[in-house]
Backbone:
């Protein structure tokens, strides 16, 4: 099935199910108020400094799909952001995902992408709590 056949909200539902199946365990999930499915995620914060980062990966600049699997790409996408937080002395807890997808993208590819992210998130007790999906140009892969 293509992303265009499922639609933005259908894809969000599939990804929300995938993240929910991971289970809400760990410290990051304890303070979550609202996760995937709305315009923004919300969590309660203890007093202290909060860090946020976004490090976008662009096809044919930062990766090539012929050389990188979707699962590896998901892992790398989260890894570059976790490392930015760690470089600042922070402890990563929450991740937001922003995707621009050509309409002919296979839903299974995005599921593999999320599985790669979730495997790394599990290792670092990071909760994937939402983000944004936009339509990208056709023929990107």
Residues:
């Amino acid at each position: 099935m293509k992303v265009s056949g499922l639609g933005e909200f259908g894809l969000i539902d599939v990804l929300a199910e995938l993240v929910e199946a991971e289970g809400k365990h760990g410290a990051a999930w304890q303070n979550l108020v609202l996760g995937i499915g709305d315009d923004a995620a919300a969590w309660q914060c203890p007093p202290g400094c909060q860090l946020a980062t976004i490090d976008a990966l662009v096809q044919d600049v930062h990766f090539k799909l012929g050389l990188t699997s979707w699962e590896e790409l998901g892992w790398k996408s989260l890894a570059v952001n976790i490392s930015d937080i760690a470089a600042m002395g922070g402890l990563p807890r929450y991740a937001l995902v922003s995707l621009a997808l050509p309409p002919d993208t296979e839903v299974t590819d995005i599921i593999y992408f999320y599985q790669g992210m979730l495997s790394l998130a599990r290792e670092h007790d990071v909760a994937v709590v939402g983000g944004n999906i936009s339509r990208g140009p056709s023929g990107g892969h």
